[in-house]
Write a structure and sequence with these properties.
- With 166 residues, the chain is of the alpha/beta class.
- The chain contains 7 helices and 4 strands; from the N terminus they run H-H-H-H-E-H-E-H-E-H-E.
- The chain has a 4-stranded parallel β-sheet with strand order 3-2-1-4.
- Helix 1 packs across helix 2, helix 1 crosses helix 3 and helix 1 crosses helix 4.
Length: 166
Amino acid sequence: MRYNTEMNDYDIISPTAYLTAYWRGMSDIPYAKDVSEILGAEKIARDLLGDLLEPSSWFGSVMIETRNKAMKREVERMKCRNIYGLAEGALPTGLIMTQDPAVQYLHTDLPDMLRASENVLRKIMVKDNLKRPNLKFQAVNVLDEKQLLSAAEFFRGKPFIVIYTR
C-alpha cells in the first residue's frame, strides 16, 4: 500500500490516515484494532513520528476516541438513518452503524484510499461473518460537487446527514 509523500498527491493514502488508525486501534471502538492491524498502521505511525510516537499516543488516542464517540452520540440524537460519510479512510464507522439494518451508510473517499479501506473492512466482515447490505462504498472527491451530488443519489431523495470523522 502506498502513502502520500507529495503535498498534492491527494489520491494516495496520507500517512496521517495510518497514524489515526493506529491511535484509534488503542481505543474500545469496535473493529478499530482490527483495522489498525490489517493496515500495519503501527509501522507507518512509527516511521512518521519516530521517538515521538509513544509520548504523543496518549493524547492522540484519547482525542480520536472522544471525537468518534461524540459524533456517534450526535448521529444517534438526530435519529437519522441515512448517513453520508465523507473521506472515511479506513474508519469502521460504517460497520458499526450498519449493525442496525434500518441504517443506510455511504462510505466515501478518494479511489485509492477507498479501495484500501473497503478491502480492510471486507476482511473484517468475512472474519466476523458480518452481512452489511446497507453499507455502500463509493469513490468521491469532496472537492468535486458533481461527485458529491451523484453519490447522494444512494439515498433516493430521502434526508441524510453528512459526517466527517477522520
